Amino acid sequence: MIELDNITKVYKAGRTEILALRGINCLIKKGEMVAITGPSGSGKSTLMNIIGCLDKPTSGEYRLDGIEVSTLNDNKLAEIRNKKIGFVFQSFNLLSRTTALANVEVPLIYGGSGSRRQRASQALESVGLAHRAKHRPSELAGGEQQRVAIARALVNNPSLILADEPTGNLDTQTSKEIMLLFKQLNQQGITIVLVTHEPYIAAYTQRTIKIRDGQIEALG
User: Fold this and answer.
1) Does residue 70 fall inside a structural domain?
2) In angstroms, what is the C-alpha Rg of the chain?
Protein backbone atom coordinates (compact mmCIF):
# COMPACT_ATOMS: atom_id res chain seq x y z
CA MET A 1 0.00 0.00 0.00
CA ILE A 2 2.87 2.36 0.87
CA GLU A 3 5.99 2.35 -1.31
CA LEU A 4 8.83 4.73 -0.46
CA ASP A 5 11.73 4.79 -2.89
CA ASN A 6 14.86 6.75 -1.88
CA ILE A 7 12.90 9.49 -0.12
CA THR A 8 14.85 12.54 1.06
CA LYS A 9 13.67 15.71 2.78
CA VAL A 10 15.76 18.86 3.09
CA TYR A 11 14.69 21.87 5.15
CA LYS A 12 16.35 25.25 4.69
CA ALA A 13 16.99 27.60 7.60
CA GLY A 14 18.62 30.67 6.11
CA ARG A 15 21.74 29.43 4.39
CA THR A 16 21.76 26.20 6.35
CA GLU A 17 20.29 23.00 4.93
CA ILE A 18 18.96 20.36 7.31
CA LEU A 19 18.74 16.87 5.87
CA ALA A 20 15.79 15.38 7.76
CA LEU A 21 15.45 12.19 5.69
CA ARG A 22 18.38 10.54 3.94
CA GLY A 23 17.17 8.04 1.36
CA ILE A 24 14.28 6.14 2.94
CA ASN A 25 13.30 2.88 1.23
CA CYS A 26 10.30 1.12 2.70
CA LEU A 27 7.28 -1.01 1.80
CA ILE A 28 4.16 -1.32 3.97
CA LYS A 29 1.57 -3.79 2.75
CA LYS A 30 -2.19 -3.35 2.80
CA GLY A 31 -3.66 -4.51 6.13
CA GLU A 32 -0.45 -4.21 8.13
CA MET A 33 -0.10 -2.50 11.50
CA VAL A 34 3.36 -0.93 11.73
CA ALA A 35 5.17 1.25 14.27
CA ILE A 36 7.76 3.88 13.34
CA THR A 37 10.15 4.47 16.23
CA GLY A 38 13.28 6.48 16.90
CA PRO A 39 14.75 9.16 19.17
CA SER A 40 13.67 12.80 19.03
CA GLY A 41 14.94 14.44 15.85
CA SER A 42 15.35 11.13 14.04
CA GLY A 43 12.96 12.09 11.25
CA LYS A 44 10.01 9.87 12.15
CA SER A 45 7.44 12.69 12.23
CA THR A 46 8.81 14.08 8.95
CA LEU A 47 8.37 10.64 7.41
CA MET A 48 4.83 10.42 8.80
CA ASN A 49 3.98 13.82 7.26
CA ILE A 50 5.15 12.61 3.86
CA ILE A 51 3.22 9.34 4.14
CA GLY A 52 0.15 11.38 5.12
CA CYS A 53 0.52 13.72 2.11
CA LEU A 54 0.95 16.66 4.50
CA ASP A 55 4.41 17.35 3.07
CA LYS A 56 6.29 16.52 -0.10
CA PRO A 57 9.69 14.82 -0.31
CA THR A 58 12.62 16.79 -1.71
CA SER A 59 13.48 13.81 -3.89
CA GLY A 60 12.45 10.20 -4.35
CA GLU A 61 9.13 8.55 -5.17
CA TYR A 62 6.15 7.81 -2.94
CA ARG A 63 3.32 5.58 -4.14
CA LEU A 64 0.13 5.22 -2.11
CA ASP A 65 -2.22 2.48 -3.31
CA GLY A 66 -0.30 2.47 -6.58
CA ILE A 67 -0.68 6.23 -7.09
CA GLU A 68 2.50 8.31 -7.41
CA VAL A 69 1.64 11.09 -4.97
CA SER A 70 5.00 12.85 -4.54
CA THR A 71 4.40 14.98 -7.64
CA LEU A 72 0.70 15.80 -7.16
CA ASN A 73 -0.49 19.37 -6.64
CA ASP A 74 -1.96 20.58 -3.34
CA ASN A 75 -5.59 20.09 -4.39
CA LYS A 76 -5.00 16.47 -5.38
CA LEU A 77 -3.10 15.82 -2.16
CA ALA A 78 -5.98 17.29 -0.14
CA GLU A 79 -8.41 14.99 -1.97
CA ILE A 80 -6.30 11.93 -1.17
CA ARG A 81 -5.99 12.97 2.50
CA ASN A 82 -9.75 13.33 2.78
CA LYS A 83 -10.69 10.08 1.04
CA LYS A 84 -7.91 7.63 1.84
CA ILE A 85 -6.29 8.69 5.13
CA GLY A 86 -7.50 9.14 8.70
CA PHE A 87 -5.26 11.09 11.11
CA VAL A 88 -4.92 10.69 14.89
CA PHE A 89 -2.66 13.02 16.87
CA GLN A 90 -1.18 13.12 20.36
CA SER A 91 -3.09 16.28 21.34
CA PHE A 92 -6.47 15.01 19.99
CA ASN A 93 -7.05 18.32 18.07
CA LEU A 94 -10.74 18.49 18.93
CA LEU A 95 -12.86 21.65 18.62
CA SER A 96 -13.43 22.67 22.23
CA ARG A 97 -16.75 24.48 21.82
CA THR A 98 -18.66 21.75 20.04
CA THR A 99 -19.87 18.24 20.82
CA ALA A 100 -18.15 14.94 20.22
CA LEU A 101 -20.62 14.21 17.43
CA ALA A 102 -19.97 17.53 15.70
CA ASN A 103 -16.21 16.97 15.97
CA VAL A 104 -16.56 13.65 14.17
CA GLU A 105 -18.59 15.34 11.42
CA VAL A 106 -15.79 17.77 10.50
CA PRO A 107 -14.12 15.66 7.75
CA LEU A 108 -17.53 15.04 6.19
CA ILE A 109 -18.19 18.78 6.05
CA TYR A 110 -14.87 19.38 4.27
CA GLY A 111 -15.63 16.57 1.84
CA GLY A 112 -19.16 17.76 1.15
CA SER A 113 -20.57 14.38 2.15
CA GLY A 114 -24.21 13.67 2.85
CA SER A 115 -25.79 11.80 5.79
CA ARG A 116 -23.25 13.45 8.06
CA ARG A 117 -25.09 12.99 11.33
CA GLN A 118 -25.79 9.31 10.72
CA ARG A 119 -22.24 8.51 9.63
CA ALA A 120 -20.72 10.41 12.57
CA SER A 121 -23.03 8.58 14.97
CA GLN A 122 -21.96 5.23 13.51
CA ALA A 123 -18.29 6.17 13.84
CA LEU A 124 -18.76 7.12 17.51
CA GLU A 125 -20.59 3.87 18.12
CA SER A 126 -17.72 1.92 16.55
CA VAL A 127 -15.33 3.29 19.22
CA GLY A 128 -17.78 2.75 22.06
CA LEU A 129 -18.77 6.39 22.60
CA ALA A 130 -22.30 6.67 21.25
CA HIS A 131 -23.51 7.54 24.76
CA ARG A 132 -21.14 10.54 24.92
CA ALA A 133 -22.11 12.08 21.56
CA LYS A 134 -23.55 15.29 23.06
CA HIS A 135 -20.62 15.98 25.40
CA ARG A 136 -17.95 18.57 24.69
CA PRO A 137 -14.24 17.66 24.89
CA SER A 138 -13.87 19.33 28.32
CA GLU A 139 -16.49 16.91 29.64
CA LEU A 140 -14.60 13.85 28.41
CA ALA A 141 -11.64 11.99 29.89
CA GLY A 142 -8.38 11.86 27.89
CA GLY A 143 -9.05 8.36 26.60
CA GLU A 144 -12.56 9.37 25.54
CA GLN A 145 -11.20 12.40 23.69
CA GLN A 146 -8.78 10.17 21.80
CA ARG A 147 -11.64 7.80 20.93
CA VAL A 148 -13.53 10.78 19.49
CA ALA A 149 -10.40 11.62 17.46
CA ILE A 150 -10.24 8.02 16.22
CA ALA A 151 -13.94 8.14 15.28
CA ARG A 152 -13.23 11.34 13.34
CA ALA A 153 -10.39 9.53 11.54
CA LEU A 154 -12.73 6.65 10.68
CA VAL A 155 -15.76 8.60 9.49
CA ASN A 156 -14.68 8.72 5.83
CA ASN A 157 -13.93 4.97 5.78
CA PRO A 158 -10.19 5.43 5.10
CA SER A 159 -7.97 2.58 3.97
CA LEU A 160 -5.07 4.00 6.04
CA ILE A 161 -4.89 5.46 9.54
CA LEU A 162 -1.81 7.44 10.58
CA ALA A 163 -1.36 7.98 14.32
CA ASP A 164 1.39 10.29 15.60
CA GLU A 165 2.14 9.49 19.27
CA PRO A 166 -1.56 8.63 19.83
CA THR A 167 -1.00 7.62 23.46
CA GLY A 168 1.48 10.38 24.37
CA ASN A 169 -0.99 12.26 26.59
CA LEU A 170 -2.57 9.18 28.18
CA ASP A 171 -1.82 7.07 31.24
CA THR A 172 -0.61 3.49 30.80
CA GLN A 173 -3.97 1.75 31.26
CA THR A 174 -5.79 4.12 28.90
CA SER A 175 -2.96 3.76 26.38
CA LYS A 176 -3.45 -0.02 26.40
CA GLU A 177 -7.19 0.44 25.78
CA ILE A 178 -6.51 2.74 22.82
CA MET A 179 -4.00 0.30 21.35
CA LEU A 180 -6.48 -2.57 21.66
CA LEU A 181 -8.94 -0.40 19.73
CA PHE A 182 -6.34 0.15 17.00
CA LYS A 183 -5.76 -3.61 16.83
CA GLN A 184 -9.49 -4.20 16.39
CA LEU A 185 -9.59 -1.67 13.55
CA ASN A 186 -6.58 -3.34 11.96
CA GLN A 187 -8.31 -6.71 12.16
CA GLN A 188 -11.16 -5.14 10.17
CA GLY A 189 -8.69 -4.54 7.32
CA ILE A 190 -7.52 -0.96 7.94
CA THR A 191 -3.79 -0.36 7.46
CA ILE A 192 -2.38 1.43 10.51
CA VAL A 193 0.96 3.23 10.80
CA LEU A 194 1.83 4.86 14.12
CA VAL A 195 4.74 6.86 15.46
CA THR A 196 5.76 6.11 19.02
CA HIS A 197 8.79 6.30 21.30
CA GLU A 198 7.35 3.74 23.72
CA PRO A 199 8.51 0.12 23.18
CA TYR A 200 5.41 -1.31 24.87
CA ILE A 201 3.21 0.60 22.41
CA ALA A 202 5.25 -0.58 19.42
CA ALA A 203 4.81 -4.15 20.71
CA TYR A 204 1.13 -4.00 19.79
CA THR A 205 2.03 -3.75 16.10
CA GLN A 206 3.10 -6.49 13.70
CA ARG A 207 6.51 -4.96 13.03
CA THR A 208 8.64 -1.93 13.78
CA ILE A 209 10.60 0.43 11.53
CA LYS A 210 13.40 2.08 13.51
CA ILE A 211 14.75 5.44 12.28
CA ARG A 212 17.86 7.29 13.39
CA ASP A 213 19.42 10.42 11.85
CA GLY A 214 16.99 10.37 8.93
CA GLN A 215 17.80 6.81 7.92
CA ILE A 216 16.23 3.42 8.56
CA GLU A 217 18.31 1.75 11.25
CA ALA A 218 16.28 -1.47 11.39
CA LEU A 219 13.42 -2.69 9.23
CA GLY A 220 11.19 -5.22 10.99
Assistant:
1) no
2) 17
Single-letter amino acid code for the residue at 154: L
DSSP string across 199-214: HHHHTTSSEEEEEETT
Q: Round to whole Å and give the CA distance between 137 and 201.
A: 25
What is the CATH number for 127? 3.40.50.300
Residue 67 domain-assigned (yes or no)? no
> What are the tens digits of pLDDT across the range 20-54?
999 999 999 999 999 999 998 899 999 999 999 99
Per the domain annotation, does 4 fall within a domain?
no
Number of domains in the chain: 1
Q: Hey, is 131 helix, strand or coil?
A: helix
Q: Which backbone phi and psi does 181 adopt, to 5 degrees?
A: -65, -45
120 lies in which domain range? Answer: 30-57+79-219
pLDDT, one tens digit per residue, over 109-150 is: 876 666 889 999 999 999 999 999 999 999 999 999 999 999
Model confidence pLDDT, tens digit, residues 53-85: 999 999 999 999 999 998 888 889 988 988 899
